[in-house]
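It is worth pausing here to work through a concrete case rather than discussing structure prediction in the abstract. The textbook approach is simple: state the sequence, then state the predicted structure, then interpret. We follow exactly that order.
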Amino acid sequence: MILKIMEEDWDVLLILDACRYDFFEKICGEYFEGKLERRLSVDFCTLSWAIKSFQGHYPDVIYVSGTPYISSKHEFDGFRGSKHFNQVIDVWEYGWQEGLGVHPRIVTESAIKVLRTFNSKRVIIHYLQPHTPYISNELFRELWTAMEKMPVWILMRVEYNLITKNIDKIINILSFLFSRVGLLRERVALRILLGQLFLGNPVKNFARKYGIEILRIAYEQNLRIVMKYAAILCYKILKENPSAKILITSDHGELLGEDGLFGHYNDHIYTRLVPLLRVRNVKISDDSIKKFDKELLRHKIKKLKYKFGWIG
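Step two, the predicted structure:
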């Protein structure tokens, strides 16, 4: 069954970017109790998923975004997040770290603040993981850091300036010409193609360098990292509101060598199959909660030091 997330019943919706159903099913019982369903995503990349999933305006929804594609500042292929939601919190902008992307800790901290500030709103929290970069792997961090400097990725993160507008104009022209001759039906497909030409396929590059088995281990480790933080977030939500309706799902899946394909550049069963978990309870240790709370307090103190110029 195709998953139309805005037709589901939820108070809080967690999106784990590029999360495969089979990997999620394998480990979700270590972190959560609930009803797990296997669903088909409406598309196989984030931008197309967003365009198809959020066609209206949702004044009761706050979007906490770890991905540049859902943004209050940038418009991609006619989609600007701020046109569809009450607010978009651009965690991808202030939380980006070289070689790590947006760490799930930062997304979780931002989500907790939003949930406490806007307690009458529904909230979508979009984690970047298990999408690349694979943050537990030092070797891949080096590879990703180098690729971050490529033009297409930089354009996703800078202000929406003249360069970005010119890129969009080029995409518009090429999309029109390609569609006229039947090469590409969707504008998003051209953006994906250009991204691969300039940036390459980071998942394929990783597999080529380290092998498919190491790739799958790195992907699962990324998923475990984000699942731990998602569990911490759900624990805190349910502690304050035991009746909260929490769903965990993904925008799309990921290819890890099946049929010789990698990433999410192809419409394939593994890029479409996603989990839908209706959370009933959380399995997380007291030590993990205490460690997170200490981290949160430490970062709050650090921000205060910078705010008041106290560095001693």
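Step three, interpretation. Residues 212-240 form the longest helix (29 residues). DSSP finds twelve helices and eleven strands in the chain.
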